[in-house]
């Protein structure tokens, strides 16, 4: 614990440098081991896949761990040929044996196959990304209510660009291997339902290449901005989650605000995903009240996500254990950006207690923050730097926060993914194993969603 705290203090002071170095390392040709590639026939580079039924040759899959004195010292891999049909992995062949030569064949070039990344907290509907550089204007002492006032002025300026910039954000996250997303979307009187309508239009165009849940988000306060009726309309329009925001510091009435949020969710059979920034007694009161509500309302079990949950960083280990046990029992999830500032979130302790901990980008170059890179592998890297003693085993486990706990190998080194009939949703990475990919934030080569190549390219054999 002391080692992790000391590590965190160092990162807090030099987080920008570390992130920049990690990115540079990912681009360095000498930062990862060269992979031997087994190829058959003529390969044409930079090829897009449009077929529904095809082979993907020379895919590097993790197959086990090498142990020395019960310690994992190496990850075993093997080259396979995937047979993909209508979005599913229908067979795993030994290289190119027993293939139907009539099917088109593509070549992964020996790149490592990892599960698709999941960005479980992003705002696709409001960003400067895709437009001219613009740093946020947040003077020291700026409160969240100050930011709400600023945003109310900015939204009319941003709305004409929602569609164009959401498209560019989707391109960005897909280039990092992400095809599963949960996006918060402003629903409040200033925006009305326009952001939601525009985002749904964008997502309709990407329905084959991206799976996206939408959280209707009353950014200006559910009660403060009198957004309850709009939120109900958003549920009728197909939003998947009811959002909320700081029930005491913004809405001014913790119980009334949370009750309203949960009531909308219950009325429409939806989940809840609340932004909880409050890190004082108000945050703890809200956390307890939400857990009590879920504990006495069976319909809400497994349907609450607390985004940020900064108040957990103020608790001691025993207090975290106690609240984590309650959260795990009710399947309450936490969505964290893995912050490297002054708050040291107990993310590993939560995971060790069985709490589902997800990660996400949050802001990508907007009026809240300029730092979001849209890269879940970077988040796994930050998690590893903050919370673990790095070795082959722990680095491979750190990948789970980026993939929704889908890992190629289980803790014993048994191959768990991919399996026949799994969705063909994955990313090809220039790395020798998961541990290296996490440690080096290795370059992505191609991203697939349900069999469709949505970014990048591979070779074609023929």
TrEMBL record:
This protein's record includes keyword Hydrolase: yes
Gene3D superfamilies, sorted: Metal-dependent hydrolases (3.20.20.140), Urease, subunit C, domain 1 (2.30.40.10)
Keywords linked to the UniProt accession: Hydrolase
Matching CDD domains: Bact_CD
InterPro entries membership: Amidohydro_3 (IPR013108), Metal-dep_hydrolase_composite (IPR011059), Metal_Hydrolase (IPR032466), Metallo-hydrolase_Enzymes (IPR052349)
Domain (Amidohydrolase): residue spans on this chain: 163-435
Domain of life (superkingdom): Bacteria
Keyword Hydrolase found: yes
Molecular function, one GO term: hydrolase activity, acting on carbon-nitrogen (but not peptide) bonds, in cyclic amidines
Signal peptide: none
Protein name per the record: Deaminase protein with metallo-dependent hydrolase domain
Originating species: Xenorhabdus szentirmaii DSM 16338
């Amino acid at each position: 614990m002391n080692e992790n705290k000391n590590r965190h203090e160092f990162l807090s002071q030099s987080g920008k440098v570390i992130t920049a170095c990690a990115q540079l390392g990912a681009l360095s040709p000498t930062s990862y081991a060269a992979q031997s590639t087994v190829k058959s026939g003529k390969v044409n580079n930079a090829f897009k896949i449009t077929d529904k039924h095809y082979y993907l040759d020379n895919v590097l899959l993790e197959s086990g761990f090498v142990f020395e004195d019960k310690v994992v010292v190496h990850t075993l891999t093997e080259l396979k040929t995937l047979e993909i049909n209508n979005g599913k992995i229908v067979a795993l062949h030994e290289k190119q044996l027993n293939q139907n030569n009539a099917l088109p064949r593509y070549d992964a070039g020996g790149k490592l196959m990892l599960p698709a990344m999941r960005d479980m907290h992003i705002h696709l509907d409001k960003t400067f990304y895709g437009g001219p550089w613009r740093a946020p204007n947040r003077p020291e002492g700026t409160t969240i209510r100050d930011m709400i006032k600023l945003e109310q002025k900015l939204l009319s300026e941003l709305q004409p660009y929602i569609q164009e910039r959401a498209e560019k954000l989707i391109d960005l996250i897909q280039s990092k291997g992400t095809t599963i997303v949960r996006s918060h979307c402003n629903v409040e009187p200033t925006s009305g339902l326009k952001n939601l309508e525009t985002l749904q239009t964008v997502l309709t165009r990407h329905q084959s290449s991206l799976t996206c849940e939408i959280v209707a988000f009353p950014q200006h306060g559910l009660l403060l901005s009198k957004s309850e009726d709009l939120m109900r309309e958003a549920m009728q329009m197909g939003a998947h989650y009811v959002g909320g925001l700081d029930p005491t510091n913004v809405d001014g009435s913790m119980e009334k605000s949370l009750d309203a949020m949960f009531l909308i969710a219950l009325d429409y059979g939806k989940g809840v995903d609340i932004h909880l920034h409050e890190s004082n007694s108000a945050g703890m009161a809200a956390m307890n009240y939400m857990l009590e509500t879920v504990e006495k309302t069976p319909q809400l079990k497994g349907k609450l996500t607390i985004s940020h949950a900064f108040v957990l960083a103020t608790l001691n280990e025993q207090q975290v254990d106690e609240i984590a046990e309650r959260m795990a029992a009710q399947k309450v999830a936490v969505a964290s950006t893995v912050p490297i500032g002054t708050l040291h979130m107990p993310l590993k302790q939560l995971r060790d207690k069985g709490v589902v901990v997800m990660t996400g980008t949050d802001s990508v170059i907007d009026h809240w923050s300029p730092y979001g890179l849209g890269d879940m592998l970077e988040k796994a890297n930050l998690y590893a730097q903050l919370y673990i003693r790095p070795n082959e085993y722990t680095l491979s486990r750190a990948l789970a926060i980026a993939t929704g706990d889908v890992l190629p190998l289980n803790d014993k080194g048994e191959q768990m993914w991919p399996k026949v009939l799994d969705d063909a949703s994955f990313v090809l990475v220039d790395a020798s194993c998961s541990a290296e990919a996490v440690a080096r934030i290795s370059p992505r080569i191609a991203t697939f969603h349900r069999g469709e190549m949505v970014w990048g390219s591979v070779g074609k054999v023929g």
